[in-house]
Automatic annotation (TrEMBL), chain B:
Domain HTH gntR-type as annotated: residue spans: 12-80
Superkingdom, taxonomy of origin: Bacteria
GO molecular function: DNA binding; DNA-binding transcription factor activity
Cited PANTHER family: GNTR-FAMILY TRANSCRIPTIONAL REGULATOR, HTH-TYPE TRANSCRIPTIONAL REPRESSOR YTRA
Organism: Streptomyces viridosporus (strain ATCC 14672 / DSM 40746 / JCM 4963 / KCTC 9882 / NRRL B-12104 / FH 1290)
Annotated SUPFAM superfamilies: Winged helix' DNA-binding domain
Organism taxonomic ancestry: Bacteria, Bacillati, Actinomycetota, Actinomycetes, Kitasatosporales
Keywords: DNA-binding, Transcription, Transcription regulation
Protein's UniProt name: Transcriptional regulator
Amino acid sequence: MFWLTWRQFRTQAAVMFAAVAAFAATLAATGPQLADLYRTAGSSLVDQVSSPDQTLYYTGLLIVLAVPAVIGMFWGAPLISRELETGTHYLAWNQGVTRTRWLATKLGLGAAASMTAAGLTSLAVSWWSSPIDRAVNGGGATDTYFPRLDPVAFAARGVVPVAHAAFAFVLGVALGLVIRRTLPAMATTFALYAAVQISAPLWIRPHLAAPDRTTVPIEPGGAPISIQEGARQIVAHPEVPGAWETSQQTLNAAGQPASVPASFADCLHTEAGPPTLQQFEGCLADLGALGYQQQVTYQPAGNFWALQWAETGIYLGLALALTGFCAWWIRRRVT
Amino acid sequence: MIEFHLNSRSGLPPYQQLVQQVRHALRLGLLKEGDRLPTVKDVAKQMAVNPNTVLKAYRELEHDGLVAARPGVGTFVTRTLADATLAAHGPLRKDLQRWLTKARLAGLDDESIEALFMSTFRDAAGEDVA
Amino acid sequence: MSAVLRARGLGKRYKQRWALQSCDLDVPAGRVVGLVGPNGAGKSTLLNLASGMLTPTAGTIEVCGGRPAAGVEQLAKVGFVAQDTPVYSALSVADHLDLGKRLNPNWDDAVARDRIRRLGLDPKQRAGKLSGGQRAQLALTLGIAKRPELLILDEPVAALDPLARREFMQDLMEAVAEHELSVVLSSHLVSDVERTCDYVIVLVDSHVQVAGDIDDLVACHHRLTGPRRDPDTLPAGQHVLTASHTDRQTTLLVRTDTAVHDPTWTVGPLGLEDIVLAYMTRPADAVRDTRPALEVLRCSG
């Protein structure tokens, strides 16, 4: 059974691993220079990265984010739906191998290849980007590069891409099994995987490790402050290097959660155009004088690996649950 | 060696067609005592016919004492039908010719003669069975 | 002889529609069984239930003494060539043999290689490039070399031209003679069934109409022609399948296990095709009443 699975899978696997190898080689060629630069420049590295390396940084992020999605769509979704579509499952299921073993072999080999591909890609990119990540965690400017905990970078570093790939692959297989047609299964896999990837940092990841809280005064010259929703909300950015801010809350003079008073919006009101800087600082000072403060909840940089392992566990658990679903479905519900 | 064929429009079941073809060949002297019939597998393959059908035909021929199966060797003709029946053909044919002349004189055309013959033949066969 | 296929109250429902209903069958081993019936009658459903591709909604089915596809041992006993004879288009002919060899405990490699050689197939040819006839032959090779006790074929020759069809049937009959296989095949060509099968199952509108030895069926079905008469006045042992009348004449197709002695009838023989067509054209209420089908099993000519 392994032979047949490998025989059917080897071309796709070869294409994927060749692409991964080519990309890893590119990273290997430029990585050492970046590491040298960090040794000499430290956190100010962020201002000295060459433009090609900057492109490579973003390319790396994109590739690690894309690999699980591509695996789910191009390896997972067609794995069984193509057999159902062409009727070859009739051939396969009437050899001397039970469907459960057939499925187990296909899932096992596919998941192992998926996790390896995603793992190697993530390893290469994490290694290459580590000087930049360290520079950012050490206090380097974050206007060009993401802290490792930022949702964009988090899914492209460490071990979570391995779990993402396993999940995306089994998700594709399960949808292919249920939908039974390759193209719709691929589209649905992409849509569902993207939805899960967007939901995770919004609603799940912030709760996977104990966050830190800090309360900053509202005053000109303090932590940078921006306003949202027509000055009804305030967002403060305390200088905690490498942190991921997960929620904001304005507190009144009594230290109770409160909404931003209407006087603040009135103060910022202009006949036309945005308020001037002096006006903005004046209004902030007034608000601060009323006793208002801003509470910021964030995941500190030190929680990176705790969050990585927790999220890895969740995605692997989902992949296992979907595997169980596939095994049930193929025995009870197919044809 | 005899080569079989099947006629899907004959109305006879396939195994009876095989039996008939062997009898016919025996009558015409195409098959003689000691001749070997093709193996069941060869007939099945050549005619795309069920081997059980061929077996059934051979068993019927065996039951009639026309052939004998020697296990592992084949099925062989043990008797011929040629002499006995050919000798009887002459007088019978003459009787039939006389009857046909009578039928024509009675005003029967070819079709009526054929219908009369077939229905009488079938009735007689039916009585034999019953 | 033991039954190679036994069904009791077998039924399969897809959402609201029953594809097969209250099916009772006892097919003896060592036979070549023809499953005939109009399109959509449930032939494929029955064969898919027998191969374990489907699970029954009602009743039970047993094949070679076990539940279909219940395990490796059971899978080895039954070969199945599905409709349109699917093969892996990206794999070569040799790959398919390799697949069969690796996945089947009783695989007969000599038979497989010999067949491919005699068919004149290039082992390196990709299966996707084979003609319909060659593909069917490849699928049949996999089915035969697996050395099953029962080989199930779903419309194996439906898509083939007459020459390819004949070659396929020749090879199938040769395998039956050689390996003592039981075979169940569905077809809508009664002439093929008459030639290659010795047992027939007629399936109409999801109900088994009649099942039995072909020679027995031929022996106990007759065409009666005679002066016009009400079919209800026939003796109890004679079941009318179809009746047609002109102003003077009545023609009946009847099933009876005793000889017809009434001298007013002219009794004519029926070929398998006539019998099958008679069951297919019966009125709908007779089709759904499955009792007569079982009585026929006892009819011994």
